[in-house]
Amino acid sequence: MRPSLLCRVAIIAASLCAASLAHATEGEALVAQSLFEEGRALMEAGRFPEACAKLARSHALDPSGGTLLNLAVCREREGRLATANAAFERALAQATLDQRQDRAALAREHLDALRPRLPHLAIDVGAGAPEGLVVQLDGVTLPVEAWGTPVAVDPSEHAITARAPGKVAAEVHVTVTEGESIRVAVPALDAAPALGERRRADGSRQRTVGIVSMIGGAVLLGGSIAGLSWSADHSVSRLQHCKPTCPEDEVDDARTAETLRDVSTVGVIVGAGAILGGGIAFLIAPRATSSSPQIAAGPGTLRVTVPF
After folding, report:
1. What is the pLDDT of residue 233?
2. Phi/psi at 20 (5° precision)
3. 157 CB neighbour count, 10 Å cutoff
4. Edge to edge, what strands does the sheet with 301-306 contain?
5. Does residue 299 sit in helix, strand or coil?
6. With contact defined as beta carbons under 8 Å apart, do 186 and 169 qualify?
7. CA nearest 65: which of 80, 44, 48, 87?
8. Which positions of the chain have pLDDT values less than 50?
9. How is residue 167 annotated by DSSP?
10. Cα gap 189→160, rounded to integer Å
């Protein structure tokens, strides 16, 4: 075994020893065993994503070298090669710790077969990088030491995000296939507009409020006008022909009409005010100029720039 591999095994073994201090309860062990058996059955049925989820949960509940080795095999068959490679390295360290030469030999065999198949992605950051730059790969922040270093990744599409204080964030999407090595340069970040300028430049919320206000005012105004019309048809003045022997239902209608007239009058005033105010808010709302996301496509990549 090469010295570098010995070092990796020693480091992983130390972490596995620390993890093993937390023993599973009897109930957790039973659940873990059921999940392991179901995971194995799903693997045999070719349902690898479901199988891997069961095995991963089983190992989390009751860590075991055998479960970890099965999970590594499952990840490999699922097509997540870099994830499988990392699992096989942990399984090798655990097998060495447990003195299980059979498991160690199987893990080495898979590691040797996986090595030439692993895709690698290197993210290059130029010398003029802004202060406080944060680079993320699939949502995971990369330490500065990892910039420019080829990192094993699963064959799929990956998102590279760059952010810095006072800059507009940029995101690059790149697809890496099995055995491929790609280098991607972090794009230059544009200066972000001041907060006050962004607020002035984007009046979409104000325009929305204006539209809603006008619609609500129109509905209220229409209903109030209808109310005034009905109250006029049933007002007290209509009872002059039959006083004092007017039917009780007509008297009730007249009283209701008086109340509705007062309410509708207020409704007309409020509705008209809402329409006027909404129209003014809509018309004076500032128009956005440069705050919209920008998309640029290139060979094998897609860049999306958004305000930050």
Report:
1. 65
2. -75, -15
3. 11
4. 140-141, 134-137, 156-163, 169-176, 301-306, 294-298
5. coil
6. no
7. 87
8. 1-7, 9-22, 290-292, 304-308
9. B
10. 13
